[in-house]
Amino acid sequence: MIKLGQIKYNNRITITLWFGGAFFGAEKLKIGELAEKANVTKRTIDYYTNIGLLKAERSASNYRYYDVSSVERIALIEQRKKEGKSLEEIKKEIMNKYSEEVDVQELRLKIRGLEKEVTEILEKLEQTNQMKYHEIKNKISKESLSLIQTLLLLLNLK
What we know:
Elements: E1 2-9, E2 12-19, E3 22-24, E4 28-30, H1 31-38, H2 42-50, E5 56-58, E6 64-67, H3 69-82, H4 87-99, H5 104-139, H6 142-157
Antiparallel strand pairs: 1-2, 2-3, 4-6, 5-6
Helix pairs in contact: 1-2, 1-3, 3-4
């Protein structure tokens, strides 16, 4: 599943791509760093992660990394809790808010960049195929080539 999001943190905007369980395009924080910046405990972050209010990316060494936007998200959660909202209500609000915040213009720029990369890869693949074709053609002797052509003509006559 692919999800797109926009992060606003310290007056910076970053488009993120959530693909295959990993975030791309944003700075990461370990759980302790996030707890310190958000002024909550690691246990609170664990709980929010377990109920789906926060998302963590696991490293190869199984460390959890959080996007910097999690600081803002935790502040929103804590504010809504003070207002008397349940965590389920807060979760619905967050899901609606963050799913609607994709900057279409920046997204188009990212897509163009990805299209360019795919085009370059396809061109390189085509060049590789051409090189292999010429390599094989050069390895076949003229006598073998004549024999193959004759056999193809005979097959087409039948």
